[in-house]
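Subject: complex prediction, re-run

Hi both,

The earlier run crashed halfway through, so I resubmitted it with identical inputs.
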Amino acid sequence: MRRQHPLIVAASCLTLLFLYLPLLGVAIFSVNDARRGLVWKGFTLKWYLKLFENDWILQAAWNTLLLAVVSTIVATLLGTILAIAMDRFPWRPRTSGVLDVILHIPVVIPDIILAAALVVAFGLLRMVSSIFEPGLLNMIIGHITFQIAFVALVVRSRLVAIGSEVEEAARDLFATNWYILRKVMLPLLMPGIIAGAMLAFTLSLDDFVISFFTAGPDSQTLPLFIFAAVRRGVTPQIHALSTLIMLVTVILVVATERFTRKHEAA
Amino acid sequence: MKTKLADSILTWYGELTTRGQLIRRGRLLLIPGMLWLMLFLVLPGLVLVAVSCITRGAYGQLEWTFTLENYKRLAGFSLFGWTPDYLMILWRSVVVAFVTTGVSVLLSYPLCFFIAGRPERSRYMWLTLVIIPFWTNMVIRAYAWFLILSPEMPFARIAAIFGFIPDGAPLYPNAFAVYLGMVSMFLPFVTLPLYASVERLDWSLVEAAQDLYASRVRVFTQAILPQTMPGLSVGIILTFIPAMGMFVVPDLLGGAKYMLVGNLIQQQFGPSRDWPFGAAISMGLMVLTMIGLQIYRRKGKEIEYV
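This time it finished cleanly. Structure:
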């Protein structure tokens, strides 16, 4: 281990404090018994209990989960197929160049531009069909659009990493395409697909901008609910809700870490 | 992984086939994903460009008459002469993104060296500490600052004692609050890729520089900076571009006085219902993004030659 300058240690601790201080503040106030103001009045869990009686919040939680699950499933399927198609066929350099650029658009542009484009496109599509009214379906479509790119990029890097030797060996042994897909490719790709799906799922839970632009009156998600609550004037329930979401984040991060580390070791 | 291309006949994993056949098979697989991206990414993008060049009707509806009025308005020309208000907001967004990126880089270097210097087992723990805020919802983190800077909290009280703000006032909305929020929002975006480079740092080069009596500054610029450039440049691009389009933080902590381009776009699509102007501002942001990417790519090339 390298000896470290005390300044580096001090600066790092301050930086971490800077990241966590606000979050700790929220967590502390979620168990504070004061209705108004921020004075400490004793420990309580009543804000958490109230949370589960609040139909708005429960509905928003349900929407958030539904949105994340449905969009992740579709995006993982489409993204994985896309990654295989892009990596395992003899495309001309120009074709793969164009495909590459399209795939990178959602990763490099600010999400507010994608959101604006979707608002305008859905606005025009509404003239054709009423299913494009702002709401859950539009949000799902929006989420899938940016998730596909991330899933495809993760899965493709895994495809590159495993190489094509095993598949070639299987073909030399007269395996059919279908057999190779089921018995060779998918098992080898699975860690990449799961990692991509986890990324897509967290991106969906984390998204605010795309949802904010495409949501309808009945399709609030938790981030939208919190944003609206801050502007209306906050209740302690929001502290409890935020703390719960932070806890879920911690669990997701630790689970993902465990998963990827296990597979790196294997 | 590129499959080797013979001109007409190819061996695809041991199976003899023609290039045309493979391309046809590949297209079938490309269709679902690419169709989706065409329908909901490329096409909406083109529609956005088109809408930025048309007019808004009296009730916020779109009228398909071609005009450059929206761009003129963005550039500051109105009935009453030239005012650079919108250009100021664009410029401010660039400055905020630039400063946010700069401060994040300054804070990330010590943090990365600190983590890389921990014993192997505890490094994951420290790294996880950086990843958790990275994945915590942006609205929650922005709200957390909103809470910390509110009048009842010690920071606002201390500031009031020193006379920076009136008694009982919160520490927002102002530029300072926006910067606090922005840096805490984007810091992990720099730290995580930078750490990947720092962990692989070749310390013998650093020691060689020190043995040759290089000053601390030169050790950093000549031995450390070039080695960490790959991670650093990823971090910079991951921060700078989304920071320009950010709108949660300036909305909660900046107020109307410290508006950024993200808020301006949201305003046009929300309360103002002026989609063509909103589309034109989005195009403005798009141009800034492209300039940023271009500078980054050019720098990236220079670095490869070094």
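The first helix of chain A runs from residue 6 to 30.

- K.
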